Amino acid sequence: MSVRDPDDPSRFLISRNLAPGLVTPDDIQVIGLDGTTADDRPSYLERFIHGEIYRARADVQAVVHSHSASMVPFSISRTPLQAVWHMAGFLGEAVPVFEIRDSVGSSSDLLIRSGSLGADLAATLGGAAVALMRGHGFVAVGDSIPQAVARAVYADLNARAQVTAGQLGGYTALTAEEGAAAAESNNGQLTRAWEIWRANARRGESV
Ligand SMILES: [Zn+2]
How many A from CA of 43 to the centre of ligand 1? Predict the structure, then answer.
């Protein structure tokens, strides 16, 4: 994940290329929206995801990118990921899916290796909170680190609930109005979840 630099909106902060569970404050790099950095340590290859979303969305202050296996089925099937649970009302009625073949054809490694690909992904995201990436993963954005993390966590849990309900024979999704109302209510409760997730992370536990 990354956060926009609070002192300079044309830069963002993200770990150097490292497994997330190993990141310490010394591992944070400052990177420009075009993916360049004065830091000579290796950076994440997919830093262009973050830079181009910050460039396209002035409202976004934090970005999460994940390869969650729970989300991938909705990136490769015809069933849209949609809000079926009030905790994920921000998903709306259909999460957009980025198709990398539309940008670079059918022989890529599916990774966002350039600013051009990052810009195409940001265009697919549009004004949404979450975008799926076909056969790859997803991005979640927010106006703060807690909101972006909460959206990533609850998008994943919503995906699992939607699959489970599908196995039971189907489900009732939230209407757009229900999703928007639930999202607004939950935004007022972000701190409660964030504080325990942060404490768990400091103890080396997952959320
Ligand atoms: Zn990725």
Answer: 13
